[in-house]
Design a protein that fits this description.
The complex is a heterodimer of chains A (110) and B (193).
Chain A lengths: L2 H4 L3 H23 L3 H24 L13 H4 L34
Chain B lengths: L5 H7 L7 H20 L2 H17 L9 H22 L5 H6 L8 H10 L2 H14 L2 H12 L4 H8 L3 H26 L4
Helix pairs in contact in B: 1-2, 1-4, 2-3, 2-4, 3-4, 7-10, 8-9, 8-10, 9-10
Classes of the chains: A mainly alpha (110), B mainly alpha (193).
């Protein structure tokens, strides 16, 4: 122990106290929030889930499954008659098939 | 039940972060004196002390020692790394403090003078002046330009009309010549624990 060690340095004591308060406040806050490593893992897991979910469902054949119910089942069934869009642009009688005299077709879901 | 030592507190802080406070209390003065004398500057000494403790807190789980000597050696290794970066960059790197969200506190001129008294910087400067006068003129000039005026080596070389490698060699030899005296002075003046 030297004379210098015995001497009081109020400024040093004050600075020590200030830094201690700052550090311990940060320490307390770091205990409350998850560490950077944990945050990174959570974000990585979330990204993996978002990326992997559609691919996983497609691989499992969910989108081709007959069990999947469509909101409008009739809409999914193929129609027996050829679509108007596939007909010749102009019929043999010269009537444009795109013009439908009876108005628009009925919505099967209605 | 015996009182816990600073090393015990450091180990304990891995699972109870608040225990780090006792480790800090045990080492603050010694570390501030060490870094202020090595940086030869009160402001840098305070910045480096704060950054070293912040880094030590963030790395506390990596401490594997058991004794107080091992804990002090671990802390001073961090401090020396900070000091080396300080000399390379010309200012303290305060990354760990930023990560913890601790704002840097600037010293008032009175605070800086008090820290200089605490670290006995005047004694050190007097010693340096004496030792510098023992050096040859070319080595003294190179050291002065690089360390006191903080010029880059290319500028030191230009002012002394020598090559840059020659400037580096002169500064290095001058520092080596001073090392023995400064080390013995440091051992006498610095308190590590």
């Amino acid at each position: 122990m030297t004379d210098r060690d015995d001497a009081r340095h109020p400024v040093v004591d004050r600075l020590k106290g200030q830094l201690r308060d700052d550090l311990m406040r940060a320490v307390a806050e770091s205990g409350r929030r998850p560490s950077r490593r944990i945050r990174r893992r959570v974000v990585a897991a979330a990204v993996m889930a978002v990326v992997a979910m559609p691919a996983g469902l497609a691989a499992a054949g969910v989108f081709q499954s007959p069990d999947v119910e469509f909101e409008c089942p009739q809409a999914a069934e193929p129609t027996a008659e050829p679509s108007v869009a596939l007909a010749p642009a102009e019929g043999p009688d010269g009537v444009d098939p795109a013009i439908e005299p009876d108005g628009p077709p009925a919505n099967p879901c209605d | 039940m015996p009182a816990l030592s600073p090393a015990d507190h450091l180990r304990r802080s891995a699972r109870e972060p608040e225990a780090f406070g006792a480790f800090y209390d045990a080492h603050f003065e010694g570390l501030l004196r060490f870094l202020t004398r090595r940086a030869c500057d009160a402001e840098a000494g305070m910045d480096l002390t704060a950054e070293t403790f912040a880094q030590a807190f963030l790395s506390r789980r990596r401490f594997r020692g058991r004794s107080d000597g091992e804990a002090a050696a671990w802390l001073y290794r961090i401090a020396k790394r900070q000091l080396a970066r300080h000399f390379t960059r010309g200012e303290a790197e305060l990354r760990a403090l930023a990560r913890l969200g601790v704002e840097r506190r600037r010293l008032t001129p009175d605070d800086a003078r008090e820290i200089e008294r605490f670290a006995a910087l005047d004694d050190l400067r007097g010693l340096l002046r004496e030792e510098l006068s023992e050096l040859s003129q070319p080595h003294r000039d190179a050291l002065w330009l690089r360390v006191v005026e903080e010029l880059p080596y290319c500028e030191v070389a230009r002012r002394l009309a020598i090559s840059e490698p020659a400037a580096r060699t002169r500064v290095s030899r001058a520092l080596k010549a001073l090392t023995g005296t400064l080390e013995s002075s440091a051992r006498a003046k610095e308190t590590y624990t």
